[in-house]
Amino acid sequence: NIAVNYYSNRNDEMRKAQSWYYLGRVYYNANNTKAAVESFLKAKAAAEKSENHFLTGQIYSIFGKLYYDQNFFIESADAYKSAAKFFKDAEEPGRCANSLSYAAINYHLIGEDSVALDYYGRAIELYEQISNIKAVVDNTYCKAAVLLKLKRADSAINCIQSVKLKYNIREEALEYYPL
Question: pTM, whole model, 2 decimals?
Answer without folding.
Answer: 0.87
